[in-house]
Amino acid sequence: MSAILEKGPVHQFDSAAIRQQFPILAQKVHDRPLVFLDSAASAQKPNAVIDCMADTMRTQYANIHRGLHWMSERTTEAYEGVRDQVAAFLNAPSREEIVFTRNSTEAINLVAYSFGALLKPGQAVVISEMEHHANLVPWQMLRDRAGIELRIAPITDEGDLDLDALQDILSDGQVALVAITHMSNVLGSVTPARQIADMAHAAGAQVLFDGSQFVVHRKTDVQALGADFYTFTGHKLYGPTGIGILWARKALLDAMPPFMGGGDMISTVTFERSTWAHVPHKFEAGTPAIIEAIGLGAAISWVEKVGMEAITAHEAALTSYALTRLADVPGLKVIGAPKDRGGVISFTMDDVHPHDIATLLDRNGVAVRAGHHCAEPLMRRLGLTATARASFGIYTVQEEIDVLADTLVRIRNFFV
Amino acid sequence: MTMPVDSGALYDRLIVERARKPLFAGRLENPEKIGEGKNPLCGDKTRVELQLDQDHISLVRHHTRGCAICLAAADLMAERITGLNIAQAEGVGRQFSAMLVEKDGQPATSATAGTPALEQLEAFAPLRAHRARIRCAELPWVALKEALSHVDV
């Protein structure tokens, strides 16, 4: 265990010690040090997560909830222990409200299917113009299946949710659910969740927040937010792929029919009929991603040891530094100017195509994302086909922002 | 003075110049054949318009919205296939695709008898090392294929 973890929470951020815990950061790309600015797509993994998953497979693994033997019982304890950890991480009132899914996409699909089954034709679901396809396509599918209406809340040119317009959209009382990102993966906008929740509740609607980006950067408290549903994914939180979380109020989970059928989600089964297990197991059919769930637990422990406040402060400083440096790159335009921005910056540079930017950055060791970022309707709203995006994580340092900005200047000289 | 950016030989000077100042961009007044290619991953689009003189391609124009690789590929394709007959143009296209998937260290694809050489299109060879970008260079050829798909040879 490295020094930083032994000392407990750090308030002075020791970037060198943090970076040492991510072995991949020592890799070279095209003979240059890796500058990884694509954490919003998926974050790298610290040794704590890598070791925990490997140790699980080496020393303590069996299927869960069904074995009568020692190995199964220990593995069940580890897996169920993560449910407690996630509940605490989100400040959920109860561990039974934590449902393990494959990712945030699956969590939202679960809500669209199971909560969607409770809706009646004519009722509406509201999303925003800046949703990831994960919080858009499942609602279109529900609309086409169940005859509900899908309404789109606009954003301002700065990239903030237009709250006045949302108020209008809610005014006829037909809205059953407002499903909005808690932080945009393209614009970095952090949405005023508490305010949105209050507006939704006043109109008789439930509210879902897609927290995939948010939980990585800020302390999340589902009770303080007034949320009814909250989703996030493990792999952006320095955990493994294949594990995500749905949190929902227990009364909602109890009322919702199961999403998928199979083993582990039943109470009794005969050829004539089956009855369902209690929540959350009603929503967890089949052998789950056991090792990945345990890996997510390790990731949450690790993040909490570093301290979410320290992470938030570090990333806020980096983002502000990056905005200053990028402002000096000729021809570069940062997309959006939200009131509250997390560590995500999308940009364009004159006529240089974002894919050319990304390829040339990559040649110089810098990994960014380019494209529509799974948010095509938002791109259309912004009048763009694609952007390049730099995103920051716990291990990002100022020197990497310098490499980004300097390389962008040279790329522009190359093309213009 | 900053040092030039490392482009890994991918962005040959010819590619950058053609992307900036294409020689075959535009539209034909009365195109005989039209084909379109679209890459849903990045939104790149190209439209290829042809005029034929019997089975010879006499005039080519492209209308391309895309990255430098896609733009230059469309322009250099237009230049290369002008004057060829349809079978020859299709042969060049096959050879171009084969070049892009060749493994490093393998001998260059030998042209089948009667197929004209790639010539300037060889500038795209370094794309082999950037698999994600090969589609950008192939998009104009997809459009060409569509344009030619209704031609009886």
UniProtKB/TrEMBL annotation, chain A:
Root EC class: transferase
Reaction(s) catalysed (UniProt annotation): (sulfur carrier)-H + L-cysteine = (sulfur carrier)-SH + L-alanine
Cofactor(s) required, per the database record: pyridoxal 5'-phosphate
Gene3D superfamilies: Aspartate Aminotransferase, domain 1, Type I PLP-dependent aspartate aminotransferase-like (Major domain)
Stretches assigned to the Aminotransferase class V domain: 35-404
One GO process term, biological-process aspect: cysteine metabolic process
EC number: 2.8.1.7
GO MF annotation list: cysteine desulfurase activity; pyridoxal phosphate binding
Domain of life: Bacteria
Swiss-Prot/TrEMBL keywords: Pyridoxal phosphate, Transferase
Pfam family, one: Aminotran_5
UniProt record similarity statement: Belongs to the class-V pyridoxal-phosphate-dependent aminotransferase family. Csd subfamily.
Family annotation (NCBIfam families): sufS
Record-given protein name: cysteine desulfurase
TrEMBL record, chain B:
UniProt protein name: Iron-sulfur cluster assembly scaffold protein
NIF system FeS cluster assembly NifU N-terminal domain: residues covered: 11-94
Gene expressing this chain: iscU
Record Gene3D superfamilies: 3.90.1010.10
Any one GO MF annotation of this record: iron-sulfur cluster binding
Entries under Pfam families matching the protein: NifU_N
InterPro entries according to UniProt: NIF_FeS_clus_asmbl_NifU_N
Residues passing through the membrane, by range: none
GO BP, one annotated term: iron-sulfur cluster assembly
